Amino acid sequence: MNSEASGPLHGVRVVDLTQFVLGPYATQTLGDLGADVIKVEEPTGDRQRTSGKAPASKTMGPLFVALNRNKRSVALDLKTEPGRRALRRLIKSADIFIHNMRPEAVARLGFSYEAVAALKPDIVYVEAMGYAPEGPYAGRQAFDDLIQSASGAAGLAQMVDPDEPLKFVPSIIADKTCGLFAAIACLAALRHKEKTGEGQYVAVPMLETFTGFIMAEHLYGETYIPPTGKFGHTTTLTPYRKPLRTRDGWIMVMPANQAQAAKFLELGGIPDAYGSERFLSAQGAQMRVAVYNEMLAEATITRTTAEWLELCAANSVPAMIANAARDVLDDPQLKVTLFEEREHETQGRYRAMKPGLRFARTPASIRREPPDVGRDTLEILEELGEDGREAAEAHGAAR
To answer: Do 321 and 251 meet the contact criterion of CB atoms below 8 Å apart?
Structure first.
């Protein structure tokens, strides 16, 4: 643990009653920025802990590790009064309380917004939910696949190729996107609190948040009423938007203008491409676009990826290596800037991904390794004035 590093949220305390992906991703982001994130777990731990294998336990799976650094773990049995009492004391010390439980479940435990605000009137209370409460889907369960389905994300591939079935983006992208919006919401509400002294209730509905994210470009021709064009962003949906094969791999090349495109083609052995008979004889704009993309593919295959990256950089043609997903671990940029080997106190060596944001004066950093279940229970409850027996009761050990 690097206790000297402090990010821009140093001094902000977050009580985190979230599980799975959305909430932990949001609170890890706040932790990376310097917040003191206290992860409140059942004594058996966040259910995501068992996703994948860990070297030394069944409760430190790789997905949990990827989503829960920079947090302290407190294991509380909220089905008992000692556990609830400990959480109430934690809330009184907090700036933000965030959960992704169903509203009726959190209310049964005694931690609805009204109950929490009675304990800490200036609390920023953030509730992640599936669907906005004023709509007909309100109260239904939500998971990433359900939100990708309803948001239209599963239909994006079909917009490129109508013969494609509906299929998901192969990422937990709805959860992670909404997690970032939850972090943004926390920051905005903290700013309001700083200016006015007021806390507030904040809802982060997944479907509405993620659909707005996905459809920002695809509303397109349907933006105006009546429509001025087709639904779907034409540049994004072209079938030619794809990496190109080099002699030994793949690159993505994106000339910003005709001069850059002509230079790339020339470097690939096709001089004066736009003045060639092949291009000029193509009938109509669509055929010329097809011919241009054929020439791009033919030019790209003539050199290695490394040769193209060097030549494109020297000639100001925007291009980048196209990595297979596993290859990012060996990418020369990411090996320096993102991936880092660290030592976990119980699991041994592991690979972490450093925060991407860069702050000149208040750097984001990894200060704490992902916690084992309840690692910090005694420490935190003692900070709140609880004695050892009270801590044990709150954990459920004295039941």
So the answer is: yes
Domain ranges of the chain: 13-215+332-395, 244-321
- Of 208, 209, 188, the closest CA to residue 200 belongs to 188
User: CATH number for the 13-215+332-395 domain, one of 3.30.43.20, 3.40.50.720, 3.40.50.10540, 3.90.1530.10?
Assistant: 3.40.50.10540
How many residues does the structure list for the chain?
A: 399
What pLDDT is attached to residue 1? 45
2 pLDDT band, cuts 50/70/90, is very low
Asked if 240 and 293 touch (Cβ cutoff 8 Å), the reply is yes
Q: Could you say which of 3.30.70, 3.30.1540, 1.50.10, 1.10.10 is the CATH number of the domain covering 244-321?
A: 3.30.1540
SS3 for 188-240 is HHHHHHHHHCCCEEEEEEHHHHHHHHHCCCCCHHHCCCCCCCCCCCHHHHCCC
For residue 397, what pLDDT band results from cuts at 50, 70 and 90? low
pLDDT per position as a tens digit, 288-342: 999 999 999 999 999 999 999 999 999 999 999 999 999 999 999 999 999 999 9
Mean local confidence (pLDDT), 104-122? 97
Common-topology check for domains 13-215+332-395 and 244-321: no
How far apart are alpha carbons 229 and 80 in whole angstroms?
Answer: 59
**Helical packing angle, 144-151 and 173-196, nearest 10°:** 90
187-to-69, 168, 271, 335 alpha-carbon distances in Å: 19, 30, 53, 30
pLDDT bracket for residue 388 (50, 70, 90): low
